[in-house]
Amino acid sequence: MGDYAVGMTGHTEHGLLHSALFYRSEHEYVDSVVHFVSEWLTKACPVLVAVPGAKMVRLHSVLRRVADDEAHEVVLTDICQVGRNPGRILGWMSGFVQRHRGRPVRIIGESMWPGRSSVEYPACVQHEALVNLALEGQDATCLCLYDAVRLDDSVLADARLTHPLLWQDGAHRRSAEYAVDVAVERGNQPLQTHPAAVTFAVGKLADLSGARQWCAWYGSLLGMSADRIADLQLVVTELATSSLQRGSARCRLAFWHHDNHVVCEARGGAHLADPLVGRRPPSVGEVSASGLFVVNAVADLVRTYTSRAGTTIHAYIRLDRSPGKAA
Questions:
Q1: Is the pLDDT of residue 19 over 90?
Q2: Is residue 52 over pLDDT 90?
Q3: Residue at a domain's end among 186, 207, 224
Q4: Residue 232 maps to a domain
Q5: Are residues 35 and 105 in the same domain?
Q6: 169 lies in a domain?
Q7: 3-state SS, one letter per residue, for the chain
Q8: CATH number at residue 286
Q9: Which of 116, 163, 164, 176 has the highest CB neighbour count under 10 A?
């Protein structure tokens, strides 16, 4: 694994630079973030730092001494809120890039924080792989942080799979294990219906009214708030509509309770050939993609499995609006 031609802060060519940094202490974590932000600000680059809330608090006072808010553009965000659903992060990153179109942007993120559930994990791997496709050709530097002490070795191995570059010893090194297609497919795992699920079939758009009423009853039964029931109804509407628009004769909906969430499953529709559908803002006329983008924006987790036989989507909606937590 040889050294890359330029260091991160010495990058001068246009294009995506996507790397992973494995940290082993809080001191290394803070020093690394502050170092990169300081370097980028000297080049007048807009900087986005998206890390778990507890770490964001620790970084805030340090970064405040580095950046003059009036002279530099640094956005500090709690990734546990904006990125609880990994399928939402790409749209949010793309929005930051577009707001600064024509300028190089720099993004530090920690989407795979310790405490992510096994259900969320495949979506995290898929997200990191898709960054390479979604931001290809953009003048963007993305540095992804991984806790090498608290995360399993398998997680670090997947980071090497999804990141073309690793930041080690003050320089970029190519990841010999990088394989974006393998990583995308690794997140495309078959999804099973819960044996205790209740079901509802949507064969035409006129059936959506009944589906919304039915899921409202189910959410009420589990103690969902009115706001969360409205979110569930929106997700059901968009999932079923997107399925029918993709040529499905029928969309089969299924619902069950899992770990303080209502899981809404939609089965039907054609194969999703583009893995970025629903993860980045859709183009004008992409009606089905627009619906899936809304689902990712509203749901707390979205898992997708697609094959030539069709597509299955699981959308998780928390019973309440409690934010995610991470150390």
A1: yes
A2: yes
A3: 186
A4: yes
A5: yes
A6: yes
A7: CCECCCCHHHCCCCCCEEEEEEECCHHHHHHHHHHHHHHHHHCCCCEEEEECHHHHHHHHHHHHHHCCCCCCCEEEEEHHHHCCCHHHHHHHHHHHHHHCCCCCEEEEECCCCCCCCCCCHHHHHHHHHHHHHHCCCCCEEEEEEEECCCCCHHHHHHHHHHCCEEEECCEEEECCCCCHHHHHHHCCCCCCCCCCCEEEEECCHHHHHHHHHHHHHHHHHCCCCHHHHHHHHHHHHHHHHHHHHCCCCCEEEEEEEECCEEEEEEEECCCCCCCCCCCCCCCCCCHHHHHHHHHHHHCCEEEEEEECCEEEEEEEEECCCCCCCCC
A8: 3.30.565.10
A9: 163
Whether residues 125 and 219 fall in one domain:
no
Mean pLDDT lowest among 7-11, 105-109, 251-255: 7-11
Is residue 166 pLDDT above 60, yes or no? yes
- When divided into structural domains, the chain yields a total of 2
Confidence of residue 131 (pLDDT cuts 50, 70, 90): very high
Q: Is residue 75 part of a domain?
A: yes
Kindly state whether residues 131 and 173 are assigned to the same domain: yes
Output the CA–CA distances (angstroms, integers) from residue 44 to 15, 75, 85, in the order listed: 17, 14, 31
Average pLDDT across the chain, whole number: 88
**pLDDT at residue 4 is higher than 50:** no
- Structure confidence at residue 10 (pLDDT): 36
Q: How confident is the model at residue 271 (pLDDT cuts 50, 70, 90)?
A: confident
Quick one: 240 and 272 in the same domain? yes
Nearest to 18 by CA among 186, 133, 189: 133
Of 159, 186, 213, the position where a domain reaches its end is: 186
